[in-house]
Amino acid sequence: MATEVGPTPVKAPASGGAPIHHGPKGVGEDNKILSQGKWASWLLAPTIIALAVVIIYPIISAIVMSFQKDAGLDPATGLFTAGGPAGVQNYVNWIAQQCSAPAGGTVACPPGTLGAQFWSATATTFFFTVVTVAFETVLGFWMAMIMARAFKGRSLVRAAVLVPWAIPTAVTAKLWFFIFAFEGIANKLFNTSILWTGSEWPAKWAVVIADVWKTTPFMALLILAGLQMIPAEVYEAAKVDGATAWQRFRLITLPLVKPALMVAILFRTLDALRMFDLPYILTGGANNTTTLSILVINQIRQGFNAAAALSTITFIIIFLVAFIFVRFLGANVVEQSGATGKGKK
Amino acid sequence: MKTPKFLLPVATAGVLALTLSACGGGGGGGTTAGGGDAEAGLDGRGPITYVQGKDNSNVVRPLIAKWNAAHPNEKVTFKEQTDQADQQHDDLVQHFQAKDAGYDVVDVDVVWTAEFAAKGWLQPLKDKMAFDTSAMLKPTVDSGTYKGTLYAAPQTSDGALLYYRKDLVPTPPKTWDEMMSMCSIAKQNNIGCYGGQLSKYEGLTVNASEAINSAGGSVLDKDGKPSLNTAEAKAGLENLAKAYADGNIPKEGITFQEELSRQAFQSGKLLFLRNWPYVYNLATTEGSSAVKDKLGIAPIPGKDGPGASSLGGHNLAVSVYSKNKATALDFLKFMTSEETEKFYATQGSLAPVLGSLYTDAALVKKLPYLPVLKTSIENAVPRPVTPFYPAVTKAIQENAYSAIKGEKPVDSALSDMQKSIESAGAGS
Amino acid sequence: MTAATSSATSLRAEQDRGRRKAQNKEKWAQGRTYISAAVILIWCLAPAYWMVVTAFREVGFTYDTSILPTHVTLDNFNTAFDTSFGNRFGQALLNSVFIGGVVTLVSLIIGVFAAYALARLNFRFKYMVLGFILGASMFPGVALITPLFQLFTNIGWMGSYQALIIPNISFVLPLTVYTMTSFFREMPWELEESARVDGCTQGQAFRKVIMPLAAPAIFTTAILAFISSWNEFLIASQLSSDATQPVTVAIANFAGAQPNQIPYTAIMAAGTIVTIPLVILVLVFQRKIVAGLTAGAVK
Asked: Membrane-crossing residues (chain C) (predicted)?
């Protein structure tokens, strides 16, 4: 058992594109795919239905709404009346940062409107995403490597790492708000008097620190699971061959953990692009910490249809990021798994 | 059979989604006045539900128990929301949009009244539903009124107080300038001078409107149009900006919300504090308080006399979708009766809306700040009464914050505020 | 070491030195591991420590910044569990465990099906399905609430457990499917083939051979799914009722004795209580994970 299976995981990433061999039993390729397709549809149906009801339905209904005008006030009665079809006006307004003018038509959104914040919120969202995911990947990898080693108290460390994650975000945000208060423990401990939530960069870093603290365990755990799938013999063999620690990391650990790592980074990125609770509670979006999701919820309170358009724009932005990710960075479970599937059958 | 079967669920889901979104009716506010709804159920009697945010001091439950004992056929069920104002607002919006008949009587923050009324969700309190407000303080009644019609009955109120250190300041300042001149005392004692709630959140709207109203300006005029391009509004906002630039408001003042400012004052680091009445009890009783016996209270300072406080508090309204409006109206009257108001004040430290209670000897003995609070509420101006409140408050916060921090001249902050509010009112 | 004269002893000394050097290196590596572990512990636990210290402080001393516990009291925990004001923290804890448990179980089962299909079967539109599943985690969660609210109101599910469980399942499914797919493609599937040669059906082969090997990945995914459902707040805050609200909503309901007062100490007490079951869960499953992992490493 041991000898037979050992090298498989090493082989898998290398097998890249070309299928290795095809059904030697003489069954037609098309038929095989058909019967597998039938199986696959049964196996996938529950997942697809669950996603369709709870996520796809709201997305479609939001897209429908995004082409409607928000309710306007009837000056005679002082009551809101339905806005009617808007075409793509809601989208244009966001992207060009245009707001309704009192005289009719649109003007550039004055500072203080949500419309004026679209591009800055986009920039902030990307800043948070890049910085937090980078920190979380590096820290998470490091933590996973430590936790993969054998030492006394390992289970303690493994449990402790999950503590930040186990605390609900609402509590985490309050906790960090409390820590970062002017008279709070952070300033006292480091003997500083930083206005953590009162100026731009400290506020941004406060959010980054809190987010990294909270979600690094997610990364660490996924990477750890990836690390554990590497057979110890591979390392032994490399050691015998005289590979340095850095070479072992670069040539063995990294490529073999890559599938798990990429899934972790991909999902963290998607999550970070939708970051909401932490900056919302910690800074209220002040000092340029308003993310796209915060902008969405602020807009929901002012007009749902424009908010639906903004949600759709956010969705498209995230989709593009994910596409680039999968296409160019190899976070692609399809291609690799497809190859493996074909290879084995 | 030739098309892969797994696409079937996707297709089904798509069809399902489209059908449902047609039923959903665009969910977002496409509302007509609901004229039919407002006429329905006026004589209806039966069990109802009362919806309110977290019952902090356990005053609602005993009242409802009392009501239920007296009205076995019209029992009230209490639906408690979270303690977060934003979530209460969103929860109400969701239920109104769904035309939920299960939310009969709702407790609305004073600033939501106009929005809900304009959406056609609140039953006008007139004709059969008429509600008597003659004994109530006028500013509180104004907060429940939209376009000349009463939509919500005032239940509790709240006004700002100026807390000061009576060991350092023998007589409290009556005007803003007088208060600023006393800041030298703070300097001598090496503490901060004045603190309010200037972090960028709802509290900043409260503080900035107070500054503008106290200087004789206003955020919105009588017709609900912005009126910020005035010398008075400028003078008001400038007071805050100048105090921050001079250091009379300590630099951490820009991070203060209610609790952090209370904490700074309680630990003896501020000479003056603008805050709500709740601070009184805590500052005089909490173990860590350094100002227990040195605490003075006064109306907030204005231009040449008491300032114009922003009004807090909650109103009670009946949903147009309620089926038992006659019961709902009776319950409204019960919840705003003198007896209830007294109970609220003594048990929950909630400021009454009935003027007579502020001079009730027994109450004043328990809540010594009541006479001062009466002055505050009598001079109070409701926060802008507008169906676009969410946009208006954002416009004020965003621009006042920049102005106070000195990132933007007061003039352009006010003109941006003006334009933002105009744009919100222009509809989209 | 005293006799450095004879060449034999010198040789032994040489070997000795070599061994000691290796031992030192080992010790040094071990030492570094412990230092790193300590750094991780401090980074992860220091803020949590502050939460616990605050949880045990008297309300009047909420803002005290002494690093060691002062003004210690259990009042905050009593406040948290006190039911007289309508707080149902105990009930909410059970709700969270129940919802989290069902979400984890269901999403794992159907997620494993889907991942198996994606990793092992050939069929058309595989890319489309993967894109669809991934696309489901790209829409801002805050914008899902209103449509879901209307959907559940229309079918009379408001405030029910299923109204909380089903959205949560959908939120964790994409991650579950992707993680399991990426692990499944690392599996030694030859074993499945040989089991089938031995007369197992494909289902049996999967259950008896593949599942045990996949155990660590499944447990990891289970923890991910459980915590993510445990943390969910937005949907629950709008769709739950008093009877079904999970613990995150219950905490948001904590109120101070005075309006405007934020009961930090009680919130931190609640945070502490909420964290404990998770830590216990991890410590219990720890065994499983490690056992599964070692089995995996040996093979």
From this structure: 33-52, 97-118, 130-152, 164-184, 205-227, 262-285
Residue C278's H or E segment, with its range, is: helix C264-298
CA distance B376 to chain A (A): 29
Look up residue B216 and give its two tokens. Answer: 């004789």
Count Cβ neighbours within 10 Å for each residue of A230-258 and write b for 16 or more, e otherwise: bbeebeeebeeeebeeeebeeebbeebbb
Interface predicted TM-score of the whole assembly (ipTM), two decimals: 0.85
How sure is the predictor about B26, in pLDDT bands with cuts at 50, 70 and 90?
very low
Between A5 and B329, where is the model more confident? B329
Cβ contacts of B20 on chain C, cutoff 8 Å = 151, 154
CA gap B19, B24 in Å, rounded: 9
Which is the CATH superfamily of the domain at B161-310+388-425? Answer: Periplasmic binding protein-like II (3.40.190.10)
Query: A175 to chain B, minimum CA–CA distance in Å?
Result: 14
Question: Which neighbouring-strand residues pair with B275?
Answer: B161
Decide: residue C65, CB within 10 A, 0-12 exposed, 13-18 middle, 19+ buried: middle
Write phi, then psi, for C57 (nearest 5 degrees). -95, 150
Residue C7: its pLDDT value, please?
A: 63
At residue A17, the pLDDT reads 37
pLDDT at residue A149 tops 90: no
In the chain, the amino acid numbered A277 is D
Domain limits of chain B?
Answer: 35-158+311-378, 161-310+388-425
CA dist., res. A103 & res. A99, Å (int): 12
Q: How far apart are CA B204 and CA B189, in angstroms?
A: 28
Candidates C72, C89, C149, C260, partner chain B, best to mutate (most B CBs within 10 A): C260
Q: Are the CB atoms for B162 and B175 separated by under 8 Å?
A: no
DSSP B224: S
Across the interface, of B13, B390, B402, the residue whose CB is closest to A56 is B13
- Mean pLDDT, chain B, rounded, equals 88
Is residue A76 less than 8 Å (CB to CB) from chain C? no
The two domains B35-158+311-378 and B161-310+388-425 share their CATH topology (first three levels equal): yes
* Residue B146: CB atoms within 10 Å: 24
**Residue C225 · residue A221 · CB < 8 Å:** no
Closest partner residue to C37 (CB to CB) among A54, A151, A159 is: A151
Per-residue model confidence (pLDDT) at position A342: 37
CB contact (8 A) between residue A302 and residue B251: no
Number of helical (H) and strand (E) elements in chain C, helices listed first = 12, 0
Instruction: Check whether A203 has a pLDDT greater than 60.
Output: yes
Cα gap B248→B182, rounded to integer Å: 10
Residue A215 DSSP SS3:
helix
Task: Note the pLDDT tens digit of each residue in B249-266.
Answer: 999 999 999 999 999 999
CATH architecture type of domain B35-158+311-378 = 3-Layer(aba) Sandwich (3.40)
Q: What is the pLDDT of residues A152-183, one digit of tens each?
A: 888 788 888 888 988 888 889 889 998 999 98
By Cβ distance, the residue of C61, C252, C259 closest to B287 is: C61
Mean pLDDT of chain A: 82
Q: Residue written as tokens 């509590």? A: A171
Chains in contact with chain C (at least 3 beta-carbon pairs closer than 8 A)? A, B
Name chain A contacts of C189, Cβ cutoff 8 Å: 340, 344
Contact C50 A175 (CB under 8 A): yes
Is residue A13 within 8 A of residue A255, CB to CB? The reply is yes
Dist CA C284 CA C291 (whole Å): 12
Q: How many residues does chain B have?
A: 428
**Shortest Cα–Cα distance, A37 to chain C (Å):** 5
In DSSP terms, A107 is beta-bridged to A99
Map out the domains of chain A with their CATH numbers: 117-304+323-344 (1.10.3720.10)
**Backbone angle region of C58, left / alpha / beta, with phi > 0 → left and psi within -120 to 50 → alpha:** beta
